[in-house]
């Protein structure tokens, strides 16, 4: 087991992936770092939701259904109020953080657009200061303009996919819970 942990850092250093990532982020400018922070927060929330759906919610659902089926009566106002309260609690716990994920996904293309604008400002600044349109001088500004745009679009597309899958999964689990609490046994 120790040999695996000793081998892993060597492998990571041999491929220089960290240097490549650092170079990519430098080429994209400051906006790309902001975008990376937004994407990191978004994916932390997505992973948290996936863990909740697979690990915690099944126990919560089982608890609700067991207590419901142990009840002697299901038709009184009091029983229906308890069931509705559980459904409301389940809805809140299922859909927690989904609006924040949606907001972060919506911010990604806007940050990419901000990167485009700042990159183009850099290109125009070079043109104004140098008095020419030398492609070598404008290349870094164009890189500043295109990399954040691409990063924002990729982040938004993957985030939209993850968000929509999470919403569907939450809706499905909510419906299953409601059906199990409506049945008598």
From TrEMBL:
Cell compartment(s), UniProt: Cell membrane; Membrane
Database matches in Pfam families: MotA_ExbB
Keyword field contains Protein transport: yes
Keywords of this entry: Cell membrane, Membrane, Protein transport, Transmembrane, Transmembrane helix, Transport
Superkingdom of this protein's organism: Bacteria
Keyword rRNA-binding attached: no
Record's bilayer topology term: Multi-pass membrane protein
Coiled coil feature spans: none
Transmembrane domains' residue ranges: 31-55, 103-124, 144-163
Domain named MotA/TolQ/ExbB proton channel: residues: 70-177
InterPro entries: ExbB/TolQ_transport (IPR050790), MotA_ExbB_proton_chnl (IPR002898)
Family statement: Belongs to the exbB/tolQ family.
Protein's UniProt name: MotA/TolQ/ExbB proton channel domain-containing protein
Species of origin: Vibrio hippocampi
